[in-house]
Amino acid sequence: MSKEQKGRSIHELEKIANDIRLDLVKMLEQAGSGHSAGPLGLADIFTALYFNLLKHDPDNPDWPERDILVLSNGHCVPIRYATMAQAGYFDKIELKTLREFGSRLQGHPERKKLPGMETTSGPLGSGLSQAAGMALGLRMDNAQHRWVYVVLSDGEQDEGNTWEAAMLASKYKLNNIIAITDRNNIQIDGPTESVMPLENLRDKWEAFGWHVIEIDGNNIEAVIDACNMAKAIVEKPVMIIAHTIPGKGVSFMEYDFHWHGMPPNHEQAVKALKELRTLGGKIRSEHE
Amino acid sequence: MSDLFLAEDRKKLEPIRKGYGRGLLEAGKRWDNVVALCADLTESTQMHLFAEAFPKRYVEVGVAEQNLVTVGSGLAAMGKIPFVSSYAAFSPGRNWEQIRTTICLNDQPVKIIGSHAGLYTGADGATHQMLEDIALMRVLPNMVVIAPGDSVEAQKATLAMASDKRPNYMRVAREATPIITTDKTPFEIGKAYVFREGSDVTLISTGTMTYPALEAAELLEKDGVSAEVVHVPTIKPLDGATIIKSVEKTKHVVTVEEAQIIGGLGGAVAELLGENLPTHMTRVGMKDRFGESGKPDELLKHFGLSSAHIAMAVHHLMLDHANHKH
To answer: How far apart are the CA of B73 and the nearest CA of chain A, in angstroms?
Structure first.
């Protein structure tokens, strides 16, 4: 982690995650297209990554000592953009250009467009194998102190490429990979278990030779603890199955697969922002 | 062409893939960041030389071609120059989207080697005779497409690829083909070479078909037709200047390749000339068909790719052109 990010309390991190969710809702409304549920559900994981776990430098995105973060499910990139802006990679005003012509914030992430975006993704199932290649490369250079984090969706585990990578990482005992599955149980056509059942997902990963940790992916402390624990597992690559609530923080989006690939309209955005500002009605908003 | 130092005779045979194997070993010696990945075909893709010399820089991914190229992309992201090999039918046959997204759009210098490309795959039959690889790779932005004419050129091409910053694809053949160049023959990515000068027709050939094109030129000479042979080891970027210069002189073009003419070298030359120098041309190659089992020479004859067929194609073209004029 960079110096200024050390020692933040969980409470402070939760506040940051909420700020990121506010930005997410605003940018998705502005863009008029994009994915809402996944990014909202991932806000806590991305906050934990960028504000506690990752060794990185927003002023020097290519810092040779940085940890790597691969986003395999590229459609969830709004959460990465919002988190990077929050971390200081670029001004938040640029978030308004999401998906616009000429923007660095492409609909799906492109390495060549935005410094700090480690790889280009969107077509599903190829993030874990790229992470495995990166982990192998770091090992060849005796640079295993740099961690390779990779975030996958659950739906993309329908893709065979993911399991090819699972076998390879296990064969080479790539203990410098920390993989996180965003287990939100939805994909475009509906619940994962009706589209193409993934369960028992834990057994699958264990059968492929991975160490599995299951957590509440909307609990920042749990995310941090799991990743730190993963660093102590030396014999196997680690898959953290992070159970998240799709649309987390916006009640009318939560658990509803229809919000997978849809942005809020203006009215819905106003309602969502109010909910987020009042923490679901628990506090009075200063912005009312 | 004396300055090209071509082989004095073309009697020595060697599979083109062997030149790749030697080139890769040499690249490994010259550059520490060269690494190699294979999908369960180490010896037949000739990567065993590298694997034995540099076991720590060699990754066996198993029968998993999608993983082959995406792991390669990840290694390239960490500063490596990965050579990834399989049979062309599987890579780039099976993993095109991964190549498109994680290598071309992502702009990582992964070197994809498709072995056992074309009819020279022989007895294995249509499933393994990859004829669409040139077309598949040529349409991808950022991608360089190379088809060396013999094993000696393949070795040079491999070294050139190792120091090229772009994604590259190289197709190499299984069965032995004549060695037509020497160690001194120049090779540069993006350059075409006039292997034989002539004035009546330009034969534009790539890969294994440059040898039969040279043979066809000799047959044509006996018939009083002077054929220029332009060897095009780099199909993309295409050396338009060399091709146009030759065609301006001869005004007749026959392209020759051991791949689908749709999207292949024939397609590439037709696009170039269509926009710059519309010229009567014939494309010799696979015409929207699949191959089948057989010995390479049987297959070349059956599908109209032998030197006699190439010479015949030239005669037909020149006759048609003469008739059009009247």
So the answer is: 6
